[in-house]
Each structure stands twice: as structure tokens, then as C-alpha cells.
Amino acid sequence: MISGRRAVGDRPPEVVALTLLFCGAFAALVSAVLFPMSEQAPVGYATALLPVTALMAGGTWWAATRLPRGILLAQVVVATVLNSLIVALSATLAGVVVDAFAYAWLVVYVAAFFPSVALWFAGVSSAGYGVALLASGIDGTATVWAVVTVSILALAAAVAHVSRALGHQLQTDELTGALNRRGLQAAAESLQPRSRRRADAVSVAVLDLDGFKAVNDERGHHAGDVLLVEASDAWRGALRNADLIARTGGDEFVVLMPDTSAGDAERVLQRLRDAHPVAWSAGVADWAPDEPLDRCLQRADRRLYAAKAGRG
Asked: Among 3, 19, 172, 281, which lies 20 to 30 A Cα-Cα from 308?
């Protein structure tokens, strides 16, 4: 999924995008109130939604990183329900067609930032639109519903596919297939709240290959790349399902081990040593529940350098 990036200041792109969607909805409601499409248009309902939409836009922007991603998705569901009420109260065919664009934008948002639920959300939106059309009592809406349903399902599938591919590319090291720094940070942000709630121990290990510069100097950079790929593949095979490995530098890797004490981490690292003969040194640190990952990595780095010095 598209995540782990900062778009404006410290606000994630999904927060910025949702704020812009609510601002666009506010502008559309103002237009509907000032220039109703018919005398029977639901102007009163649209007027009542103005402060609600403004509050959702302002609250999303202000809360920013304090908002769990689930709350963002819940807001989109609420917006879909509110739009369905507008459709149900509409008096003209043109009105329900215009309102269909709101479903499309909401589906695009969900597909971009929540691709795993994109098709489900598109299906629910289609069902909600169909029920609202029936409630409106407007004739000739069957074709409109069919076209909108096909459109938003296709949008959901296409945008979700692109989002997954882009998210994978942004968070994966191109050479080894392990996570990169961005992917590690995103995984850590996802893991930390769960570990805090369950009071699970989390260990972080920083690995650095011994004598890697000599491999590049004596055998060439291609040989060094092959060594990195072979070692990382072997390590991934030796790790547990919950463990994560990231390449954060030329020959430096980070292993994130949930539900693992420092003592247990040593046993995990021993499996890595047994998986591939390349020599490496490691530093291990316990990750405190409310500690920034960078600070934990600094402690692990210091222990790594101490281990390298001890090995001469």
C-alpha cells in the first residue's frame, strides 16, 4: 500500500488526501446550496452537512499523525453513508448522476491507501448507491446504477493494483528483495502499537558483514552483490514468519524480531549464522514500547561496533 511517506510537514499522504476530499465535498455542498438543480433539491440537508464536512476536514488535518489509519477508513465509510442520503433525497436524474462522482473519489482514495479492502468497499458503495436510488423514487436509474457499479469496481481494482505495486517498490530493496529503510520504518510503525498493547518484548539486531569491502575490491562489485543476495535469501528462509529483515546500507541489515527477548534474539541470530557461511557481526537491543526506532538502532549500532572491535 502507499504509506510510510510524509507529504506536507509531518502529515502522512493519506491524511492530506482525505482532508482535500472533505474540502472538495464542502465546496460541492456550497455550490449545491447556492445553485440547486431543482426546486425539490435537498438544500436543507446539504446545508446541515456543511458544518459536518468542515469539522471532518479540520479534524483530520489537525489530528494528522495522531489518527489511527482505521479512523481514516471509518470516516470514508461515514462520508459514503452521508452521500447515499443525498442520493436518496435527490429529485432529479441529473442530481443522482452528479452524486455518483463522490462514490468514485471515495473508492479511489480507499484503493490508493487501503488496497486490501478496495474491492469490498467498492461493492458496499455500489450496494449503498443502489438502495439510495430505489429510495429516491426516480425513474430510469437502473442503467445509471449499472454504469456506476462497473466503473467504481474497475477503478478499485486498477488503483489498488497500482498502489500495491508502488508500495512494494517504495519499501523494498531493489537488489536483495528485503525491506529498505522506508519499509522498515513502516513495518515498525505498524508493529509498535500492537506490541505496546500486548506488552510484548521486541528485539532489534543490526548486522554488518565482515570484510565486505575486501570482497568488492578483490572480486568486483558484482561478486559483492551476489553475496548480498545469497545471504539475504538464506536469512529470510531462516527467520520466523513474524520476523522482518531490512537492508539499510551497503552491507548493513536490520532484523526486527517481535515477541522476542534479547536472549531469544541470540538464538534467532544463530540460525542466521547456520543458514549462510558469510561472516558478520551483530548488535542487539531491546526496543522499548514508546521508544523511537532510530534511538533503538543507535544502541544496537554501538553494540555492533563493540562486537567488531572485539573480533579484531
From this structure: 172
Mean pLDDT for 99-120 is 95
The two beta strands, 280-286 and 203-209, are antiparallel
pLDDT of residue 114: 94
Cell 510537514 belongs to 9
Please state which of the ranges 128-132, 169-173, 226-230, 258-262 shows the lowest mean pLDDT.
Answer: 258-262
Is a pLDDT exceeding 80 seen at residue 310?
no
Kindly give the pairing relationship between strand 203-209 and strand 244-247: unpaired
Amino acid at 286: D
